[in-house]
Amino acid sequence: MKPFLPLLTLLISVFAPRPCPAQALARPTIVLDTIYANDTKNVALFFPEPIRQGITGSDNFVFTYNRDKGQYFGLLQAKPGKESNLLVINKDGSVFSYILRYKKQLSKLNYFIPVSSSIGTEKPIVTDSILAESSEERIDNRKYYYQKFCTYLLNRKQRIGRLKKRNEGIVLSVENIVFDKEELYFVIQIENNSSLDYDLNFLNLSIETRQKGKRKSLQRLYQKPLYTHGLPTKIPENDIARLVYVMPKFSLSNDRRAILEVNEANGGRTVKLKIRHRFINNPN
Fold this sequence. Notes:
five-stranded mixed beta sheet; 15% helix; Immunoglobulin-like; mainly beta; 4 helices
């Protein structure tokens, strides 16, 4: 009987059930935000894209939106009852999901939903969960996210402070600096108040360091953007261009500052805007 035992042990080790590799790659649980509503006030939800479909889980919650003409917002009301959920699909296929609860007294009546709150897309890209996503797919997905978030920022009316510089009819300003995930988004405006078109040569963001010592000097290091959204080649006379630069996240010490510089092709109109470290270190 002894020779049989090693063979039996080998068979058990080979044919015993093993955990599926996909089980080891468990997906993280998505925690849904909660939105409160009641029957005396309208709670407005503003989405980054027009609403195509909105569904609540029970009849004591009502979500209304323009079904004929896509709009960016919907209105929510609720009657006393058990909690439910809201599922919203935007025109671009982005999916948003929330827990709904009735509350007699409301402290918040308006919700501005960012692109980053989407839990996925209506038609997700199906990939093998065991295989890693290819670098090309990661780049494409990241560019898509940059594009959608930049569009969302350009539609917002949020400002970080008065950051503006003008020269010979050209006004360069930074409307907003937003931190999201691992990037800084610079919302930039170039205004041409002159009577001549402005042909753009370059728009650069650099970090300037003041060298200490007897011989004080300035050292400037160019920062290459990860993505640019809406960068024009020409700004006609009496026209405005608004764009977004996506930069890797960085911070500045007291002896450093950011320099945003716009230069005209075949011309001498250059505008340099100095951005102090407190704006970079405290973005929206």
